[in-house]
Amino acid sequence: MKQIIVWSAMDFTGAGLQAAIADCGLEPVFARSMAELHQALKVYPAAPLMINLLGSDYTPTDKILWLNHHVDSVAERQVALLLRRQHEALVPELLSLENCLTVADNVRVVQLHETLLQLVVNQYRPRGDAPTTERGRLTQMEKSLLRLLLQGADIRRASQQLAINYKTAQGHKMSAIRKLGFRNSAQLYKNLNGFRALAS
C-alpha cells in the first residue's frame, strides 16, 4: 500500500480525510510535529505530502515558511494543502514549490477523493511532464514580494530586501493584487493578516 504523509495535529472534517485516503488505496502517516515530519520524510522518500493549514500546533505561516526553507527535501514530492476557501488563490503563490494542489475547507468528499487521486497520479508522473494543475501567473518577483509581506515586512522594507526601488515594488504589488482578484491593497493585507492569524 502506498503511503501519504499528513502533517496535521487534528483530522480534517472529522473522519472525512481518513476515509478519503483509505478509499484511494493510501495509508496515512500522520506527523503531528516538525520532528515527526522530518522522520516521515526520511522513512517514506516517495510519499506525497498533505499539509493541514486549518489549525494545529504550528501556524499556517510557520508551515508555509518551513516549506519554503525546505524546498529541496520536498521538491520531488507532490504536495497538497488543506486551507480556507478565501486563501485558495493566495496561498499557492506564497510557496516556492512548483507542484502544489489545494483543497479548501468546504470541499465535498468527492472532490477530496479526486484531489487525492490526482496527488498520487502526479507523484508518479515522469519528471518534465506537465502537472495536471495550472499555477497562477504571478511572476517570481511578485511571489517573492508576497512572501516578504507574509513575513511581516512592509513594502519599503520588502523593496530593500529584493534590491528594487520602492515604486517598482509598488508596481509588483499592484500587479499581484490584480492577478489574485483583489480590488485593492487593503484586501491583500486583510487576507495576508487573516492567514497569519488563522491559528493564533
Task: Give a nutshell description of this structure.
By secondary structure, the protein is of the alpha/beta class. Helices cover 46% and strands 13% of the residues.
Describe this structure in words.
This protein is an alpha/beta fold and 200 residues long. Helix content is 46%, strand content 13%. It has nine helices and five strands, in the order βαβαβααββααααα. The protein has helices spanning 16-23, 34-43, 60-69, 71-74, 109-123, 140-150, 155-161, 166-180, 185-197; strands at 2-7, 26-31, 49-52, 79-83, 100-104. A five-stranded parallel β-sheet has the order 2-1-3-4-5. Helix 1 (16-23) links the parallel strand 1 and strand 2 (26-31). Helix 1 crosses helix 5. The longest helix is centred in the middle third of the chain and has 15 residues, at 109-123. It is elongated, with a radius of gyration of 17 Å.
